[in-house]
Structure formats: C-alpha cells, structure tokens
Amino acid sequence: MFLKIENKKLICKIKYKKIRHAYLRITPDYHLDIILPNNGKLSAETLLKEKRNWLRRKVREIENSVRLFDEKSVYYKGKKYEIKVIIDKNSRIELSKNFLKIYKSKRRKTENMILEFLADETLEYVSKKAGEFSERLELFPKQVSIKKLKSFGHCTRDGKIFFNSKLICLPTKLIDYVVCHELIHLKHFNHSKKFKSELAKILPDYKELEKQLKKYYWS
Ligand SMILES: [Zn+2]
C-alpha cells in the first residue's frame, strides 16, 4: 500500500498488536508502519486521516534532514567527508581535507571499518567531555560507554550512561549537548523544569541546540 504525502510516496505496512492506542512510525527512507490495536475498533484509514498533519510535518522534517552516513560520504564532527577506498596491506583510516581515506585489504568490509572508526572516535570524545561536564555539574556516572542505539544517548537508573556509537558525526556543540543531557538524567530522570534549568546553567542556548539536533538522521 502506498500513500502520497507532500509529493513523497510512503510505503505503508499495517501491523496489529495487543496495544490500547494506535500509532505511526516513519523511517528516513519513507517506510510508514501503521500499528493498530487488534480489537479492530480503529481502521488505518481513520488513523491516517487524523494524523495527516503530523505526517506532513514528519515528511518535511525528513526532506530537510541531514544523513550522517551512507555509502558515499560520512559526517565527522559536523563536516561532510567523501569516502575513498584504497587497497593496501596496512588497514587504517585517515581524514584529509575533504576525504575519509580507507586503506584496506580486499577482504575487509568498508562499512565495518568506518563503524569501528566512528565508535573509537566517539568513545574518546564523549569520555573526555563527560569528565569535564561531570566536574561542573558535580554528577558522576558509574560508567560511560558507547552502544548501537537508535537514540543519541541513554541513561540507566543505576547511573550508567550510553552514547550512540556514531555520535562523533555530529557537530561538537551538539555532541556536548547530548553528553550534558544524559549526565543531568543522573539527577533528574525526566525532562522536567528542574532538568531544563540545570541544562540551561551549562548550555544557555539548549533550545536552539535541540532544534538543530532534530535535523539529523542516522541511516
Ligand atoms: Zn532525556
């Protein structure tokens, strides 16, 4: 089933689940999941009609979004680099002016090498930043690590912080925002007023940063 929104063709899939409220989920490559409660009370048509404006907004958001990583290029600290593969016995990655140069044997997978590189760089950066912000906020996590995540970051109730292993793709001021955000969750486990005022102490322009963060999509 297809649906046309803002001149974009969405590929729709209907799923029935044991849930109370229906919801929609849209991916950056324009796949739309329509998840309905299995009591049969709500039709996909009705839901789509109700959510028309939300869908329009989402499609526009995707159209204006920045893809951080694809086969041709990758972002590093907010700057776009073209991927260049060079066959070499000595596997390594080098950043030059506009290129991310990947030296590798024929056997090694380019994507895996890039993901490893991004993960290493991310861990190094967020560990250093978390250390700096911890001192200022007087909030100390039990552990700082990276993980394959769909979100930017994640904080557990027992004081561990995880960051998306591709976070290094973002401009550094946005990475800093994510680090700060997760650290403050050690004290406030929600996005309450107290949480926000704490955030504003360190990053007075946090609202603008949140807006910018929305432009980025992991792919
Ligand atoms: Zn949060």
Describe this structure in words.
- There is one protein chain.
- The protein has 3 domains: 2-64, no CATH class; 67-113, no CATH class; 122-217, Zincin-like, CATH 3.30.2010.
- It has 6 helices and 13 strands.
- The two termini are 23 Å apart.
- The protein is 36% helix and 30% strand.
- The model has no long low-confidence stretch (mean pLDDT 93).
- It is globular, with a radius of gyration of 20 Å.
- Helix 3 packs across helix 4.
- By secondary structure, it is an alpha/beta fold.
- Bound molecules: zinc ion.
- Zinc ion binds at residues 181, 185, 191.
- Residues 181, 185, 191 line the site of zinc ion (ZN).
Question: Which descriptors apply to this entry?
Answer:
219 residues, alpha/beta, Zincin-like, 6 helices, 13 strands, 36% helix, globular, binds zinc ion
